[in-house]
């Protein structure tokens, strides 16, 4: 039975937030955690890529049957309505970064929405030269006027340097400037994005159908899930203060490892490799620290967390993982209805992996394989189990899930979503006595999100 344990309850609630705050500060200042400026750059990329995607889809949507366009919101009217909804919401909530506004103006130019195209340009306040010239270029296209030769040369120069963006592409693609090369490139990218996006959507629908079938079978009691003794969820000999201190030391060690291993690679220009090394370090280093200190070894750790010789059968673990995935999807959907879509664009549409060869491969592997295993071991296996002893399952789930949400560094909507998912995964571990269901649900959820982001918005 899940209940609060009053023994040592107050100390753990006092100590954990303090350690959490110290960890948060160290991540923020010591390991390149997204500052407000970096977050704004990320938001600018995310909003800009959404606008670019809309223009690219418009160029190729007529190549697909009308029923397919309507099914995946690819008709001109649907793209226009979706863009207007996101644009209007973003203006009311926290605005669109100046660097992305010229691209949104181009998108509304492409769908024939003159009013919002003018609003996008009017919202630009930055005095950046690139944004200023892009605004001039788009304004002339909106007025149907031919830009002067200096502005044309500026656009061509940026294109030849590989620095051009949507306003320059859209302008140069008109009237077959650059011998039609840019238009062909945009069409090719548009087809790739739509084809991959449709595949990602179908994959998501297939997983959702699997979830629905499992929920129906569970509701009809076609299979039973045995109760798992809660006492197996943590080592009785763990003294919570010492174990909690060791956990945060392990997290600090991971941050130091990220700094030591990744920054030299960034400095010499190996950005993709630095991302991969840093991603591995932040996930694996804490486990390399915790396992030998808090457990007799890897085999004991696997048995402790139900990853080896679990009480449930493999079929029961898989079924419960899919059932938990359904609950995670429901929670994420509920938060999306309450929160702002525009606030979370930068969480999903990320410049660090969408257009990088190695990074695209790495983010798929990391989000579907590495992160589910390592994060479930760290946050549910170790932290939840450590806190569960002194304060009970409910408080332990809340505290560990809040830290889980903080460490992802997302927007407010992303934080609420990630924290809620952490609560679901804690419940799954508490209910089954094994981390496998959480790993399965975590992996499938990340697969749906990552495949959709890469499918619809990557230029590869």
Compose a concise summary of this entry.
By secondary structure, the protein is mostly helical.
What would you note in describing this structure?
The structure is a single chain. By secondary structure, the protein is mainly alpha-helical. The protein has two domains: 257 residues, no CATH class; 137 residues, no CATH class. The N terminus is likely disordered.
Keywords:
460 residues; mainly alpha; 2 domains; 76% helix; 0% strand; disordered N terminus
Radius of gyration: 25 Å
Q: Mean pLDDT across all residues, rounded?
A: 84
Poorly predicted regions are 1-10, 27-35
The fraction of residues assigned to DSSP E strands is under 5%
Secondary-structure element pattern, one letter each = HHHHHHHHHHHHHHHHHH
- The assigned structural class equals mainly alpha
Helix content: over 70%
Largest sheet: none
What oligomerization state is this entry in?
Answer: single chain
Amino-to-carboxy terminus distance? 51 Å
> How many separate domains make up the residues?
2
Work out the helix count.
18
Per DSSP E runs of 2 or more residues, the count of β-strands stands at 0
Question: What is the general shape?
Answer: globular
List the helices and strands and how they pair.
Elements: H1 9-30, H2 36-60, H3 66-71, H4 76-93, H5 101-111, H6 114-122, H7 129-143, H8 149-160, H9 166-173, H10 181-219, H11 240-267, H12 271-294, H13 298-304, H14 314-338, H15 345-348, H16 357-408, H17 412-432, H18 436-457
Helix pairs in contact: 1-11, 1-16, 2-5, 2-10, 4-5, 5-6, 5-7, 6-7, 8-9, 9-10, 10-14, 10-18, 11-12, 11-16, 12-16, 14-17, 14-18, 16-17, 16-18, 17-18
């Amino acid at each position: 039975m899940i209940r609060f344990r009053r023994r040592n309850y107050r100390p753990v609630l006092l100590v954990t937030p303090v350690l959490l705050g110290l960890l948060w500060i160290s991540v923020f200042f010591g390991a390149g955690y997204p500052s407000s400026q970096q977050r704004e750059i990320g938001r600018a990329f995310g909003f800009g890529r959404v606008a670019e995607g809309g223009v690219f889809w418009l160029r190729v949507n007529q190549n697909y049957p009308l029923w397919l366009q309507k099914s995946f919101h690819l008709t001109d009217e649907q793209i226009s309505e979706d863009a207007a909804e996101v644009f209007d919401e973003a203006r009311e909530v926290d605005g669109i970064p100046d660097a992305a506004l010229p691209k949104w103006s181009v998108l509304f130019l492409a769908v024939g929405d003159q009013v919002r195209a003018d609003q996008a340009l009017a919202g630009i306040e930055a005095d950046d030269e690139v944004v200023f010239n892009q605004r001039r270029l788009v304004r002339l296209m909106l007025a149907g006027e031919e830009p002067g030769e200096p502005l044309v040369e500026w656009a061509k120069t940026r294109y030849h340097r590989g620095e051009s963006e949507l306003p320059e592409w859209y302008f140069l693609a008109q009237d077959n400037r650059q011998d039609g090369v840019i238009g062909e490139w945009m069409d090719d990218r548009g087809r790739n994005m739509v084809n991959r996006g449709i595949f990602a959507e179908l994959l998501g629908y297939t997983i959702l159908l699997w979830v629905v079938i499992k929920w129906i079978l569970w509701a009809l009691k076609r299979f039973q899930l045995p109760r798992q003794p809660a006492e197996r969820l943590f080592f009785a000999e763990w003294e919570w203060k010492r174990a909690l201190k060791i956990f945060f030391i392990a997290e600090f060690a991971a941050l130091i490892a990220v700094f030591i291993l990744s920054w030299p690679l960034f400095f010499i220009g190996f950005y993709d490799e630095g991302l991969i090394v840093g991603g591995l370090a932040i996930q694996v280093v804490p486990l390399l620290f915790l396992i030998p200190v808090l457990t007799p070894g890897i085999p004991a750790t696997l048995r402790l967390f139900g990853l080896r010789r679990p009480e449930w059968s493999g079929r029961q673990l898989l079924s419960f993982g899919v059932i938990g995935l359904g609950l995670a999807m429901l929670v994420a959907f509920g938060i999306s209805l309450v929160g702002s879509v525009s606030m979370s664009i930068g969480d999903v549409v990320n410049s660090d992996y969408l257009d990088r060869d190695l990074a695209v491969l790495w983010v798929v592997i990391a989000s579907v394989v590495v992160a589910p295993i390592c994060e479930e071991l760290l946050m549910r296996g170790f932290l939840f189990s450590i806190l569960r002893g002194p304060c009970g399952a409910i408080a332990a789930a809340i505290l560990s899930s809040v830290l889980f949400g903080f460490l992802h560094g997302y927007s407010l909507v992303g934080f609420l979503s990630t924290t809620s998912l952490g609560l679901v995964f804690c419940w799954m571990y508490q209910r089954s006595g094994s981390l496998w269901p959480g790993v399965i649900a975590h992996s499938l959820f990340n697969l749906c999100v990552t495949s959709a982001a890469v499918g619809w918005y990557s230029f590869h």
